[in-house]
Amino acid sequence: MTSKSSLTCEMLLTSASTRIDSDSSRLDAELLLSHVTGLSRTRFRAWPEHEVTDVQAAAFEALVQDREAGRPVAHLLGRQEFWSLPLKVSACTLIPRPDTECLVEAALDLPLPKQACVLDLGTGTGAIALALASERPDWRITACDAVAEAVALARDNSNSLGLTVTVVQSSWFADLETGRFDLIVSNPPYIPENDHHLKEGDVRFEPASALVSGRDGLKDLQLIVDQAPGWLVEGGWLLVEHGFDQAQAVTELFRSRGFAGVETRQDYGKQDRMTLGQWYSDAPVNAPVSNRGGVDAQ
Ligand SMILES: C[S@@+](CC[C@H](N)C(=O)[O-])C[C@H]1O[C@@H](n2cnc3c(N)ncnc32)[C@H](O)[C@@H]1O
Q1: Does the domain formed by 4-70 have CATH 1.10.8.10?
Q2: Does residue 123 have its Cβ closer than 6 Å to ligand 1?
Q3: What global pTM score does this model have?
């Protein structure tokens, strides 16, 4: 039998919020306390004087210390919500980001057939593929990742959520079964190897395999744009996420490969975040570029 600690939820939350060095310190503390007590965040507001047990106080203290050391909340909880889906996460891949939901929205807006064949390259937790599967149960979705643990994690999430996605291990297109897709979507690694952001915040705890792509951050995007036409149906779409300052370079990759109707779109923070284009095998190279709220058309 555990005894009350005489520490209230509000006392713990106030103290932890001052110790955690994050823009969302109060939210982080509430999520951690919710995890150890099983109480909802709303309950902390309605019942701030609720006393936690000794065991809960000790478990919370351990989590706060880990968070003080910088470990991401998602790693401490072992899960992250994406597109309202509770996804298991681990240190083998990226923690899904809210801005990637814009990529999901863009994919859902495309004029695709009812039973579209869709490929998610570099699926990680399965975030994009599973969000699409939750909205379009008739789509036939394949997802791949080069990292075996990520493949297992995406399969685990797919099974737990009861969503049908075929997850395979492949380095981009190299080990995929031959086929053609109506849509290829990808959030690949796109951070330059010497970028100072790699030493800040949550990314310190995420693997380079999910983040870094050569000297300019474009190595993987270049390969994907280059090889995608061999895997797209006539009029098929390629939709990729990229860095806020990479729109022009990625647009140029799409154009010089011969994609049509190339567009850059923005994320929730109004940053250029994704580029898409359509593949026609007879398209002239350097087809005209359109742009909706992104970089200037050239
Ligand atoms: C930026 S993370 C994106 C994860 C997930 N799609 C998301 O949006 O949360 C990039 C993913 O690409 C995977 N990856 C890196 N190199 C790869 C390659 N050569 N082939 C396939 N996947 C790769 C990483 O393991 C990682 O899971």
Answers
A1: yes
A2: yes
A3: 0.92
Give, in words, the CATH class of 88-290: alpha beta
Q: Ligand 1 center to residue 43 CA distance, Å?
A: 37
Q: What Å distances lie between residue 91 and 94, 95, 110, 192, 198, CA to CA?
A: 8, 8, 32, 20, 15
Taking only the tens of pLDDT, the chain with its 298 residues reads 578 879 999 999 999 999 999 989 999 999 999 999 999 999 999 999 999 999 999 999 999 999 999 999 999 999 999 999 999 999 999 999 999 999 999 999 999 999 999 999 999 999 999 999 999 999 999 999 999 999 999 999 999 999 999 999 999 999 999 899 999 999 999 999 999 999 998 999 999 999 999 999 999 999 999 999 999 999 999 999 999 999 999 999 999 999 999 999 999 999 999 999 999 998 665 554 444 433 333 2
Query: Can you give the residue ranges of every domain in the chain?
Result: 4-70, 88-290
Nearest in space to 158 (alpha carbons), one of 124, 185, 205, 189: 124
**Quick one: which atom of ligand 1 is closest to the CA of 82?**
9
